[in-house]
Amino acid sequence: MKLKPIIFILITVFFYCCEKAEKPIKPYDRGNVTNSVAPMGNNYENHVFFNLDSNKVVKTISKNDWDIAFDCSDLKHIIHPNNGRGVYVAKTNKLNFTEVNDTIGLKFYWGQPSLNIDSLAFGKWWLENPKIFVINLGVDELGMPLGFVKCKPELINNKTLKLLWCKLNETTPTVETIEKNADYNFVYYSFLNKKQVDIEPRKNEWDLFFTQYVKMIFSTDLKISQDYQLAGVLINPSRISVATDYKTPFTEINGSKLDSYIFSNVSDAIGYEWKIYSFSTNSYVVLPEINYIISQKNGFFYKLHFIDFYNDLGIKGYPKFEFQKI
User: Fold this and answer.
1) Among 12, 21, 114, 182, which is least packed by CB within 10 angstroms?
2) Is residue 22 one of the residues assigned to a domain?
């Protein structure tokens, strides 16, 4: 009878010795809080791509450099206009360029920054027979109208589309072939330069895009929803997702709260609401109590908040933000 406890102990020791040791989690340096600025300029003429890991501006473009962008996904064929320059779109029911020579009766759409299928300026164009769209090209640096073009996108396959276009008063279109590139979220085209243009960095190289865009906002004063052109931040949904914390002070946010956050990879998950306009001071006021928790696909997290919208000379368009790895 005394052998049973001994056998039990031996078996227990055997299994304990055979159990795989837990792998220690490699510690990493979270670093100090970092300050950075995205230099958009007083008229938001510069649009800025930023990488959190390197704490660097990856690329700066002019908002006049492009007109429309093509989604590089195999499953979606979204075409998005350059709202930052005031580009917007109207769909016609016409098939031929000779049938469209004015804007009478057309209803124009901006499209929304979320890029949800039900809020696209070009709609689900790839599911229909190719139709003519009329595009208002917005204004130049001096606020002068750039006129209209008409275009007809045609899907060749999931990686290629054909773009036919000409000025509104013309009838013979230019034909362009647009090839998607899986290394990018979007590829871009400029009607003004008559060519495909290099705008966005590779999708593994940037996190935040400081830009202008148009969003429909409900006005509590007018009791209606209206489209507003805003300066804000769009995210790289291929690389990060974002949650918002309105309650916890920035300095107290740490890894213990990460499981409680709900993350979104909608393009305007950061957006514009970190600042408000004060009519009493005729200036923008930043809300540093709004904190953004950023989850990267590589498994790391950052916390970020905005602390200013003006540079040292008091010029707007220089959003300043703090961030730190969690």
Assistant:
1) 21
2) no
d(CA 26, CA 12): 30
pTM reported for the whole predicted model: 0.89
In angstroms, rounded to a whole number, what is the distance separating the alpha carbons of residues 320 and 283?
Answer: 15
> How many other C-beta atoms are found inside a 10 Å radius of the C-beta of residue 16?
8
Q: Is residue 16 part of a domain?
A: no
Number of domains in the chain: 2
pLDDT tens digit sequence for 204-248:
999 999 999 999 998 777 778 899 999 999 999 999 999 999 999
Query: In this structure, is residue 310 part of a structural domain?
Result: yes
- Residues spanned by the domain of 249: 34-61+204-325
CB 189 within 8 A of CB 176: yes
Q: What is the pLDDT of residues 257-282, one digit of tens each?
A: 999 999 999 999 999 999 999 999 99
Q: Are residues 84 and 131 in the same domain?
A: yes
What CA–CA distances, in Å, run from 212 to 67, 84, 288?
Answer: 13, 4, 21
Entry field: residues in the chain: 326
* Domain end among 171, 197, 223: 197
Q: Same domain, yes or no, for 116 and 169?
A: yes
At 102, give phi and psi (nearest 5°): -155, 180
Domain membership of residue 153 (yes or no) is: yes
Residues 265, 296 contacting (CB under 8 angstroms): no
Boundary of a domain, candidates 165, 181, 197: 197
Question: What is the tens place of the pLDDT at every residue in 42-87?
Answer: 999 999 999 999 999 999 999 999 999 999 998 889 999 999 999 9
